[in-house]
Fold each of these.
Amino acid sequence: MADEQRRLRETAEELQLAVRMVVRQMRLAASEGMSLSQVAALKQLHRLGPASAAELARAERIRPQSMIATVNALRAAGYVERTPDPIDGRRQIIALTESGRETVRERGEAGYGRLAELLAERLTEAERETLREAIVLLKRLADADAEA
């Protein structure tokens, strides 16, 4: 039993490392010319819709001051705009511009495109089929409502 627990632990560690490395490849492709924090802020705005810097900082688990610096850089590049909150004029609401929305779309495609390239370059068709089968298992692992 102890051997099986050790093997499960090793499998969990290797899986986490492999997933992290794949995600890093995608993020690097998606962030070309931008910092990872800028890409993350754009993605959060895409998911959340217009939000304050504090809300974005909470979503990214960073300090509000760090998010403000990121938002300032995105604003200077024309990816986001700030407007006063209609309910609380002291707050600023940050929203994607058309250029920001297009950038999120392009960056997402770049990340998925890079992953598709890696799949084609580094895996055989049989290995890609094995990966497709593993995706079903990974989704089952991730489903909190699935029965064991």
Amino acid sequence: MEIKLINIGFGNIVVANRIVAIVSPESAPIKRIIQEARDQGLLIDATYGRRTRAVVIMDSSHVVLSAVQPETVAHRLNTKETPLNEETVS
């Protein structure tokens, strides 16, 4: 299984295979998820003091806050990059 890393802003990276959802932080249910993660010690704030624009929910129940738009993170997730050590099969 290939591990793909996604930049979520300011040099912070998460493993793409572990992402469950990338959502906007404005709704009440998402705010509740953020608060519950904070209370349980599962919140990772990667905003560097900037406004939270995306909430990345991981399969480990960790919640990662990002200052990058959800659409930008999703675009980075869908972008195919060629691995550096790719060998051609002949």
Amino acid sequence: MARHRLAAAIMTACGLSAAAAGWLLPTASQPRPVNAGFLPPDTHRPAADTGADASPPTHIRGPKDFEAAVVPVAATGNGALALPEDPRTGGWWPLGATVGSRRGTVLIAGHVDTRRHGFGPFAALHDMPLGARIEVVGADDHIRAYRITARRTYPQEKLPTDLFTRSGTHRLALITCTGPYDRTTSRYQQNLVLYGTPIAPDGRVAHRETGTRGPEQPR
């Protein structure tokens, strides 16, 4: 959804949810946090096959005015992923992969907007074309490049579990909110996920990431 269409929605913090049915769902006595992202119970696993040059991401940039600082984020006591309140800063899930890893998903998520700050850089993901080059700077100051090769939308609470893993083919996943805004829950109803494939030194993508199947997001 383009920015001018999002402007009709109330500025608010979007909730990023990774829950499937039965994953730590809130009850009437346990309200959902604003920055909700309920995680699969098997995400707390030891690191595997990280690679000698792996490094935590500290900054991300790309076309369409997409540029943000990146900080690690933790799960709250009830299993929710809490993102930075400032939409100009993205949250990296540290129990996933680091940049430079040989396997796993580097998951970086951010608010599309907030009431206080308005639109943030992650709003640019709505118009990000396939083929866009994304650069991720690590704590070692090395730059790793990815090519956006797939974009999917998923309902809130139904993000694929393989986004939160250190196993599988190495890739980048960028997440923000999209879809209609529900005033009763103060949440957007969908998540947008852009999948990135590592770019080799010769400029070719190492493999083509198609993402877990979901509806294409209009650009």
Amino acid sequence: MPEKHLFEYAVIRVVPCVEREEFLNVGVILYCSAQGFLQVRFALNKERLRAFSGTLDFDELHARLHAFERICAGRARGGPIGQLAIAARFRWLTATRSTVVQTSAVHPGLCTDANQTLERLFDQLVK
């Protein structure tokens, strides 16, 4: 039987009007220490997001979400935060914010393959 590893994940949300606290799930970030895994999957459904707000800047949203990818990848491309240890990068990305792009609370689980788990969560929570 394959060994199960602890993982943590958070849902990435777009909150067009922070004051209203309405959001649309657009991605998932998953961290598994035992597998050295930190990745994000996201997709913007422009039609659904326009229903919340016609004033969203989709280029800005893409830039913010791609920053999640760069930080997950680490190294110089991820900027100063990308230089941190993998656990610190996950904690920084999932810290509470009051901006248009936010994350949910962090949730734990067990997995054998972190990449498959990320894909499953993305399908369940975003698609």
